[in-house]
Amino acid sequence: MPWKNQGGSPWGPGPKGPWGSGPQSSGPNPPDLEDILRRSQDKLQQLLPGGHFSSMGIALVVVAALAIWGLSGFFRVQSEELGVVLRFGKHVRTVQPGLNYHLPYPIETVLLPKALRVSTLSIGMTLSSDPARRGGSIMRDVPEESLMLTGDENIVDVDFTVLWRIKPTGDGVRDGVGEFLFNIQNPEGTVKAVAESAMREVIGRSDIQPILTGARTTTEVAVHELMQKTLDGYGSGILIQQVQLQKVDPPQQVIDSFRDVQAARADQERVQNEAQTYANRVIPEAKGRAAQILQQAEGYKEQAVAEAKGQSARFLSVYEEYKKAPDVTRERIYLETMERVLGGADKLVLDQGSSSSPGVVPYLPLNELGHRSAPAASSPSSQQGGGRR
Length: 389
Hints:
The chain is α+β, with helices and mostly antiparallel strands. Helices cover 51% and strands 18% of the residues. The chain starts with 32 loop residues before the first helix and ends with a helix.
């Protein structure tokens, strides 16, 4: 028996060398092809009826081989996959998840890309093992990818993730899957390069302050649109679903100084807000006072103009009367003036011409007489009333 052959191969003794000697190699000898064919023929004869090759036996063998070959065209597409059927290397159709069939090899073959799975790609950071924790991992920064230059010549550390997949089902599935399989060699590397390039371009057009504060959503949308436009230009068949900024900070080396600057800017904004609040309170008050003063001035102006016009009209009327009777008018003006001047003054009258006794000064206190005349004027009337009674 072959397996009892000591020192030989299980297929019997090896072939002799070109000079009649045995094989010169000390390793295992290659199998004898004739022996293999003979053994296979013996087993096949045992299976065939009568133990001989007949036309019926050959037909059964051919039918069985054709059946096995035909059944080899069945294949299953998993839930995250799409089946891309190639006929002699040309893309002919795309099938959905489930049990499907294609013409057996070599007529048709099938590729099963995970077209329905959403892939996540991280830029600026990588997941690495942490020696301090057994079996644990930690996100580490990748400065070569994350450090970017802004439009105002500042450096910012940006970490972000990209969610992408093959273009969704529809009229573009065939083209999308075909482009994904045949137009790009390294899809993940292509997405990573396009993502980093798009983010650097968008960051380079912006100043650092909006990026760090309120422009995160705007930046994400701009990078998303630029990435999709670039990948469509490549004919990659890739759909960018979302761009997410994970971290936007100054570089670690200057972050303390930057925080000081941020605090100073916050104080500046606070002082400006307080000043604006004070201005909003004081300016309306000042405007109100100014309007009040203007109204008072306008009233005084109208009053002064009216008085001046009245005095002018009075003067003109007096002048007209003066032209008609100068002496009388002059005397009247004199008397009215003296009345206006002496009306509120204490008056004493000394009549030098009426003095009959030497050394006696005639004294006439008009004011006191005026005060006394008032009760004196009321007493005669009361006496007359009492006489009537």
